Amino acid sequence: MDEGLLLGLERRLAEAKGTQLLVLHQLGNHGPSYFRRYPPAFARFQPACQSDELRNCSREEIANAYDNALLYTDHLLARLIQRLQAKAAQVDTALVYVSDHGESLGESSLFLHGMPYAIAPAVQTQVPMVMWFSPGWQPARGLDADCLRKRASQPTAHDHLFHSLMGLLDVRSAAYAPEYDLTRACLRQPS
């Protein structure tokens, strides 16, 4: 299960020195085996598809299994934030979470993901992104959280992720494009 990504996190935070980037890549809601992506305690939505062959399940069962996996992802993110909050007095941290793609769950008779972007339905291309910052991170970086909340209502693409991470980490490079940094306009003194 994806909670295994949290093993050793407290040790890493306790040993953290300087600027570090930790990447946690979860398996998440990759189908068709949505039912394998969450433990039984998260099987809230029922009936849920229990097959790798989606054709053996109804659309409702597929959606329920997917929603159970989403519930587990929410749990994982909450646990991660709790652990980061617990170390906030020792380490300033930022969390950026974004899904790599969405999933079709039977809309227009499409399932899973991977349609060419130009014709892919919005459920495959519009995905969640979450940013969380420890209380010390925001003033240390000059980040205006209210500004960032307002920015969240504007269109964003995966193209923004690389440049936003570079901006958050204050990485200097010719590859950095400030116009793609979601946080730049929300810095009190942009560098």
Give a written overview of the molecule.
By secondary structure, this protein is mainly α. A two-stranded antiparallel ribbon has the order 1-4. It has a single domain (2-141), classed as Alkaline Phosphatase, subunit A (3-Layer(aba) Sandwich), CATH 3.40.720. The protein has helices at residues 9-15, 59-86, 122-125, 137-141, 145-151, 159-168; strands spanning 94-98, 104-105, 111-112, 129-133. The model has no long low-confidence stretch (mean pLDDT 92). The protein starts with 8 loop residues before the first helix and ends in a 23-residue tail after the last helix.
Spell out the key features of this protein.
single chain, 191 residues, mainly alpha, Alkaline Phosphatase, subunit A, two-stranded antiparallel ribbon, globular
Summarize the structure.
The protein has 191 residues and is mainly alpha-helical. It contains 6 helices and 4 strands, in the order ααβββαβααα. Helices cover 32% and strands 7% of the residues.
Please state roughly what percent of the residues sit in beta strands, choosing from under 5%, 5-15%, 15-25%, 25-35%, 35-45% or over 45%: 5-15%
Under the CATH scheme, which architecture would be assigned?
3-Layer(aba) Sandwich
User: Could you state the order of secondary-structure elements as H and E?
Assistant: HHEEEHEHHH
Percent helix, as a range, is: 25-40%
The overall strand count is 4
What's the structural domain tally?
A: 1
- The first-to-last residue Cα distance is 40 Å
Query: What best-fitting shape do the alpha-carbon axes yield?
Result: globular
The low-confidence parts are none
CATH third-tier fold name: Alkaline Phosphatase, subunit A
Structural class: mainly alpha
Largest sheet: 2 strands, antiparallel
Multimerization state: single chain
Report the radius of gyration as a whole number of Å.
19 Å
Task: Return the CATH class.
Answer: Alpha Beta
The side-by-side strand order for the widest beta sheet comes to: 1-4
